[in-house]
Amino acid sequence: MSQTSLPISTDSASEEVPAWLSADAAAWASARPASWARPLWSVLALLATVATAIAMEPLSVCSDAAPCGPDWIGMVQAGLAIGLLYWNARLPELALVAAPVLVAIVAWEELPSAGWGSRAANLAVIAALGLGWAAAWVRLAARRRQWQLVGRAATTERRRWEPAGPRRRGTIPIAAGLALCAVAAGAIALGLRAVHEDERQAARATRTQTEVTGRTDMSLRVRAHDGRRITVDALFPEDYRLGTTVTVLEDESGPRLAAEPYDALGWQLLVLAGGLPGLSLLTTGLLARRRSTALRLAPVPALRVLERLGHDGRTWVYAADDTAGSAPLFTCVCVPVLPDADEREQFGAEITVAHHTDDIDDINDVPITETRPHEAVMLGAPYEGGELALITPGADGNPVVTHTIGPVRLPRPGKRPAGETSADS
Questions:
Q1: Measured between alpha carbons, how far is 222 from 339 in angstroms, rounded to an integer?
Q2: CB neighbourhood size of 413 (10 A)
Q3: 100-155, pLDDT tens digit by residue?
Q4: Which of 83, 242, 362, 384 has the largest CB neighbor count within 10 A?
Q5: The domain spanning residue 235 has which CATH number?
Q6: What would the pLDDT profile of 366-375 be if each residue is shown by its tens digit?
Q7: Angle formed by the axes of helices 116-154 and 22-30, nearest 10°
């Protein structure tokens, strides 16, 4: 990395902004979550224990006493388990809420009636959920600690900066999430309507006691008490032994088994297909909107740092006194664009304002002509999932404000920007 950095013009917003020195930056980096709180461990633990619990779960047999109807609680249980595999990794805010709910369902529904093997497997699921919940709490606590450390370093000069320009972060995820949640809500309503209609139809039907005399892959052959022989469809014909008595419901639509009422599986799958990504997108959009609004409207910490644009388009940030580039603090993706027309005249004389875009592919539109380290003013506190703005020198020497369009990431040890050359090369 070059030893000489490009400065921001002296009449810019960098004057009197305190520098983020290596000692403070090292304290910020050490506040990251412990290694056991990495999302990978909680995701693998949940995946392994849920798969084991499913394999150990005793098979339920359809009967007149226990019909195989729609299992809405099971749908919620499956949805939360699937969702937590993603939320543990990307949305710890949702994981903090969903994990206790799933623990309660597993403890209430699975533990009392399960055998010892299944009970042990479900206890392991609860332990994995506890690990994921604790990891999510630790990650969120680390964010708060990192915010406080950055704020403490910035407040030595009581310097704050309020970035100008409109922010529309989260608009697309919020809209898509609301649409998918509406689809899920509609599927629930239609599924419940179909179940209630089936129950009304069953209440009007004639109940006939029959004896199983034969079966195929998709049906049963039964004999009624009056000698009539009836063929009735069956989802699980292997559950009915020859000679056993089953109840057949007869009405104008034809005979069917009382032990196999209408199953709303199709509607339930639609609920999961719409609800899980819808809830994730909606939460992601709302969090992004809240963070970007806070960055734009609320006073935020401002610190001087060094930043460098790698050849892959990612921005690497260093402490202000790390001119050798020996310890990159974090990396992110930033994109500068012009503000709206009605604001360009207001701010154009001072700085070029970066207007955020939700499309990360726009990074390919940014010409990468200068990869030397730059002096920059960092607006906001970097942490996992946070929002940042960077005031950097533009090609004409005037300051340019860029905004993050992706998560702040901590680099692996020894990781450097793409195409970096050593200082003595």
A1: 75
A2: 6
A3: 999 999 999 888 877 888 899 999 999 999 999 999 999 999 999 999 999 888 86
A4: 83
A5: 2.40.50.140
A6: 444 456 788 8
A7: 160
**414 in helix, strand or coil?**
coil
Q: Is residue 317 part of a domain?
A: yes
- Spell out a b/e string for 309-318, using b for 16 or more CB atoms within 10 Å of the CB, else e: bbeebbbbbb
In a domain, 162, yes or no: no
Question: 379-403 as b/e, with b when 16 or more CB fall inside 10 Å?
Answer: bbbbbbbbbbbbbbbbeeebbbbbb
Residue 285 and residue 181 share a domain: yes
Residue 178: how many other CB atoms lie within 10 Å: 14
Is the confidence at residue 184, as pLDDT, over 50? yes
Same domain, 39 and 141: yes
**Residue 424 belongs to a domain:** no
Q: Which residues contact 385 (CB under 8 A, 6 or more apart)?
A: 143, 287, 291, 407, 408
Quote the domain boundaries for residue 382: 299-404
Query: Are both 361 and 345 inside the same structural domain?
Result: yes
* Six-digit token string for 425: 């090369």
The answer to whether residue 132 sits within a structural domain is: yes
Would you tell me how many other CB atoms lie within 10 Å of the CB of residue 66?
Answer: 10
pTM: 0.81
- In order, the DSSP letters of 375-403 are EEEEES---TT---EEEEE-TTSSEEEEE
